[in-house]
Design goal:
The structure holds two protein chains of two kinds. By secondary structure, chain A is mainly alpha-helical. Chain A has three domains: 239 residues, no CATH class; 68 residues; 56 residues. Chain A has 14 helices and two strands. Chain A is globular, with a radius of gyration of 26 Å. By secondary structure, chain B is α/β, with parallel strands linked by helices. Helix content of chain B is 36%, strand content 20%. Chain B is built from 21 helices and 19 strands. Chain B has a six-stranded mixed sheet. Chain B has a six-stranded mixed sheet with strand order 15-16-17-13-18-19, sandwiched between helices. In chain B, β18 and β19 form a beta hairpin. The chains are: A mainly alpha, B alpha/beta. Chains A and B meet through α1, α7 and α8 of A and α3, α4 and α13 of B.
């Protein structure tokens, strides 16, 4: 291990990226929290914390750059929600802001209204609901750009490895197909053929599919030449047993989940099926993992920063579960939303990973080894939470 | 190390065997070059080393291939992964992961190499191939040369005893190709790896080869021998060898250094002959057919072209040269109206190409892209020709006639994917020429072409120029430039660094000089044909 240790100092433990599962747990924790609230102050706080952490921690690859897309998508969702409410929404009482020209529908379409008076209450309600969806999207985008799906897939247990590779290949396939499509469109333009409409689609589908086939074959050959699917030292019986256990476990746990959702009365049946399924899955994983000849290159370690991040997500969830007053923005009667102290503090605490963990740095970037990224570098996204983050650091 | 014992192989759909009683043995620590015309079975031979043929391809296989004592009859490709490293024709198509480091580690993960050894080997490979700065970069963002080095590295990390490479330098500029070959030669000398390498551009690989395997195609037996012996009769021969044959040197020189040592008398004889014809002055009286002024282009924050100004005149062949990623393809894309110039001005016959409708555009300029198959959609060659006639409102049979002119004997009932590289290029070119464009542009046309197909292409392009069309060729192939170009434009990082008569530009560059020029410097001879013609004049 001496060589490994030497290399570690070269890269520096401070520069390592957080375990992808920790980031996903963190993002999921915040996402679930925001499902419980429509309070715009809390939602804004969550969004701010997420943007701050992403700005200071995201990786430099293409996935890292995808965050802006999710933010834009969120804004679009809010706009759509508000416009739909203005045009088609229920006519609720309250303070009328303006009146849209109303369309009277025949009696069989009763209940659907188009246009009419738009009240402040209705507008705000749709705005807060749209905001909740948007923040949910931002959380998902954060998980993607902090830990790419590739890295997440690398954490799969050994017996899911082959399914994981299939997903990895599919993920890298999509951009490839998009690039081929651009090439094909250009080629059709060069030959003076239509690139749009049915004719264009038909003309491009065949070369696109045959190109994809060719590429899959080449990829399969390359993977096979590089030892994919080697089963050295695993007896056929063990393999059958592992696979059987995995399938049975999946079936049983799914059935248990299904019963618990559809039929709440028979708790014993659903719980025992779910428990047995999980046990079979774990047994299959253990069995497969024990005899698997594969090893993993630089597995992501799970250390204190990961525990802290996971703990923060749990704290946020607990705070939102324990609080009941103030989570929902009151529209009837119209009241300025308050900021419930416990959830707000819990969300603020979730900004901690952005402060204490050094940003992962690509080898060719200018930042020297081991430097801590206390402040996000200037970026396109507004960093709303920077001042709050500072006070957080001071109080720590 | 690699033992072929009476290997005969036949694909399912064909009657004649591709490999016929192939029998040879590659010893440890030697680099062997596999040469032959395109479609002669080089790739089949290479893929049978680790059992991809026949386990992956199907077909009828007899005889036996043994690698390090293991027979491919028993062991599948995946079980040979620790002995044979395989690098395919297009590296990007074989990538499984998304970053350089993960790609290098992939094969070791499958082999179950302990993590500590894995770390060490990845570091060693990064250093060996000069990939250290790229370790965390996404594979898709790398240049062609970098991708090729990663592909070689990802085969090397398994510490194989045998490395098999199928045209590893075909996508690379001259400097990057030399880098890759130098690296391979180091592996052979330092680590004792046996290397089997197929290559069309023999001039690159011949100086490094210990032996040559000539695959003549057409079920003829393969010839194995010392490079200088095999090259005496080989149907594929680089310019250096053809120069040696013309000058009757024996043994044939394999490197420029060897040739220069014996070239003294030849240089002396050539001095008595009139110097090679002076280049036609670029920019004749005619008005330029294409004009590019102040063109800048960028992809995201990467600048591809910087303030490029260029004029193309009817009847001339312009070669665009420069290393991988220097902006050649982008320049062609602007010329063909695939990208809007901003800022800058592009005019083809007075029109802005990106604003033209496709129907008008293809009467002005035709572009054959790097992968000519992208232009072809029909299921047979005949169908492709007929569709083109119909779409362009031509007399039935025009495109087929034009194809016959570019390359006779392309089978009309074949699917375009089943044609040889040269035939496919000819078909794409015929399709493009059907609408009678005034400029013909080709992006890297010699990829995968053997010397005969290349010569044929050169002749076609010369004819086009004689008809008064302008030809613009973006290429790494200095021998093609020497053969056909009137003018050479060298791009570097998106800027034009040289623009002048091809002879001057090419002869004065150590990277872009063709082999004949290197041997006969300081005299400005470029091609073997020029030299043989001059020799017949000196001594009829």
């Amino acid at each position: 291990m001496a060589a490994g240790a030497a290399v570690m100092t070269d890269r520096g433990p401070a520069r390592r990226a957080l375990h992808p599962l920790a980031w996903w747990a963190w993002a999921v924790g915040l996402a679930v929290a925001c499902l419980r609230t429509t309070n715009p102050l809390l939602l804004g706080l969550i969004a701010g914390v997420v943007v701050f952490v992403v700005a200071s921690q995201r990786s430099s690859g293409p996935w890292g750059r995808s965050f802006g897309m999710f933010v834009r998508f969120g804004v679009v969702v809010v706009l759509i929600r508000v416009v739909i409410q203005m045009v088609f929404g229920q006519r609720l009482g309250g303070h009328t802001l303006f009146v849209l020209p109303q369309v009277y529908l025949p009696h069989w379409a009763a209940g659907v209204s188009i246009g009419g008076p738009v009240t402040l209450e209705a507008l705000l309600e749709s705005l807060w609901q749209g905001l909740r969806l948007a923040v949910l999207l931002v959380c998902f985008g954060a998980a993607n750009s902090l830990a790419s799906p590739y890295r997440l897939l690398r954490c799969l247990p050994a017996f899911l490895y082959e399914a994981g590779v299939a997903v990895t290949v599919a993920l890298s396939f999509t951009p490839e197909v998009a690039a081929t499509l651009v090439g094909l469109r250009q080629a059709r333009r060069l030959r003076g053929r239509p690139t749009r409409g049915v004719a264009g689609l038909r003309g491009m589908a065949v070369p696109l599919l045959s190109g994809a086939m060719d590429r899959s074959l080449q990829l399969a050959a390359s993977m096979d030449s590089r030892g994919y699917g080697r089963r050295v030292g695993i007896s056929r019986r063990t393999r059958r047993l592992t696979e059987g256990l995995a399938v049975a476990g999946l079936l049983a746990s799914t059935a248990g989940l299904y019963w618990s959702v559809t039929d709440g009365s028979d708790n014993i049946r659903s719980t025992s099926a779910f428990g047995a399924g999980i046990a079979a899955l774990v047994a299959s994983m253990v069995l497969a993992g024990r005899r698997n000849p594969r090893t993993r290159y630089r597995p992501d370690p799970w250390r204190r920063p990961e525990w802290i991040t996971l703990g923060l997500a749990a704290v946020a969830l607990a705070a939102f579960a324990a609080t009941s007053a103030g989570l929902q923005a009151s529209v009837y009667p119209l009241r300025a939303p308050g900021l419930p102290a416990l959830p707000a503090l819990a969300v603020l605490a979730c900004a901690l990973p952005g402060l204490i963990i050094a940003r992962p740095v690509a080898a060719s970037r200018e930042r020297p080894a081991g430097s801590f990224a206390l402040w996000p570098r200037p970026s396109a996204e507004p960093v709303v939470m920077a001042p709050v983050g500072r006070s957080e650091a001071g109080s720590r | 190390m690699i033992r072929f014992a009476q290997v005969t192989f036949c694909y399912h759909e064909s009657a004649a065997p591709v490999l016929n009683a192939v029998d040879f043995e590659v010893p440890e620590g030697e680099l062997w070059a596999v040469v032959g015309l395109s479609g002669s079975g080089k790739s089949t031979l290479l893929r049978s080393v680790n059992g991809l043929v026949p386990h992956f391809s199907g077909g009828h296989f007899s005889g036996e291939v043994r690698v390090d004592g293991r027979s491919t009859r028993v062991f599948k490709p995946r079980d040979l992964a620790d002995v044979v490293g395989m690098v395919g024709q297009s590296p990007a198509a074989g990538f499984v992961t998304d970053t350089v480091e993960d790609e290098l580690a992939y094969v070791m993960e499958n082999l179950g190499v302990p993590p500590a050894a894995m770390r060490r080997r990845v570091e060693d490979t990064l250093d060996l191939l000069g990939l250290h700065d790229l370790r965390t970069r996404p594979l898709r963002e790398l240049s062609g040369g970098q991708q090729q080095r990663v592909a070689i590295g990802s085969a090397l990390t398994a510490a194989p005893r045998v490395l098999v490479l199928d045209e590893p330098t075909s996508a690379l500029d001259p400097a990057a190709a030399e880098e890759v070959l130098a690296c391979l030669s180091r592996l052979v000398h330092d680590l004792g790896v046996s290397v089997l390498i197929a290559e069309h551009r023999l001039e690159r690989v011949l100086p490094f080869a210990d032996r040559v395997v000539l695959v003549p195609g057409g079920s003829l037996p393969v010839v194995v021998g010392a490079p200088a012996e095999v090259m005496v009769t080989s149907p594929v021969a680089p310019p250096l060898i053809r120069l040696g044959r013309a000058a009757r040197w024996s043994p044939l020189p394999l490197s420029v250094r060897d040739a220069r040592r014996v070239a003294g008398p030849l240089r002396e004889r050539l001095r008595h002959s009139p110097q090679p014809p002076a280049p036609r002055p670029p920019g004749p009286a005619a008005a330029p057919v294409a004009e590019i002024a102040g063109l800048t282009a960028s992809y995201g924050d990467i600048v591809a072209l910087r303030d490029v100004t260029l004029k193309v005149y009817p009847g001339e062949i312009v070669a665009l040269m420069g290393r991988n990623g220097s902006g050649k393809s982008t320049l062609l894309a602007h010329l063909a109206g695939l990208r809007a110039p901003r800022p800058g001005r592009v005019r083809v016959a007075g029109e802005a190409p990106h604003r033209l409708a496709p129907k008008q555009l293809n009467r002005l300029i035709g572009l054959v892209p790097q992968d000519p198959a992208q232009l072809l959609y029909a299921l047979t060659v005949a169908d492709e020709c007929q569709t083109t006639d119909r779409d362009d409102g031509l007399r039935p049979g025009t495109t087929a006639a034009s194809l016959e002119g570019v390359l006779p004997g392309v089978p009309a009932d074949r699917h375009p994917n089943d044609l040889s590289e040269g035939q496919r290029l000819a078909l794409a070119l015929a399709v493009i020429l059907a609408s009678g464009p005034r400029i013909v542009a080709l992006d890297e046309p010699t990829r995968g072409l053997d010397y005969k197909a290349k010569e044929r292409l050169g002749k076609t392009l010369r004819d086009l120029a004689r008809q008064g069309r302008a030809v613009v060729v973006a290429t790494h192939d200095v021998e093609l430039v020497a053969q056909i170009a009137d003018r050479a434009v060298v791009l570097a990082d998106g800027e034009v660094v040289a623009d002048g008569p091809a002879r001057e530009v090419v002869c004065h560059s150590p990277v872009f000089a063709p082999q004949v020029a290197k041997v006969l410097a300081p005299d400005p001879w470029l091609t073997v044909d020029e030299v043989t013609e001059a020799l017949t004049r000196v001594e009829p």
